[in-house]
């Protein structure tokens, strides 16, 4: 009798954990495809905005505006300067960072709340 109870608990636990896992995977995109900028979902900033990273911790880059799409090892730190090209309504900015020491650049998505606009890049249109 005890073996059946333990077996029933294990089966129930497996079913519940499987359902919870399925809901997590349902939120994870199968591909972190970047949305098209210039659409109603991701309006372009014209002109692009010069921004500085705020706060005390580094800011991760993402390949798409989704927390499930981080770019491994790519981040900026407070006071780094970025150029924002587009923003979503749910708090993401499409940005480009140019490393002043190496000249290398990286583009991706960061959380807009960590950026402070310092001006515009180029003439106003």
Q: Outline of this structure?
A:
By secondary structure, the protein is an alpha+beta fold. 21% of the residues lie in helices and 38% in strands.
Strand order of the largest sheet: 6-5-4-1-7
Share of β-strand residues: 35-45%
Based on secondary structure, the structural category is alpha+beta
Number of strands: 7
Provide structural commentary:
It is a single chain. Residues 6-27 have low confidence and may be disordered. The protein is 21% helix and 38% strand. The protein contains one helix and seven strands, in the order αβββββββ. The longest helix is centred in the N-terminal third of the chain and has 26 residues, at 2-27. By secondary structure, it is of the alpha+beta class. A hairpin with a 7-residue loop joins strand 2 (59-62) and strand 3 (70-76). The protein has one helix at 2-27, and strands at 44-53, 59-62, 70-76, 81-87, 92-98, 105-111, 115-120.
Features:
single chain; 125 residues; alpha+beta; 5-stranded antiparallel β-sheet; two-stranded antiparallel ribbon; 21% helix; globular
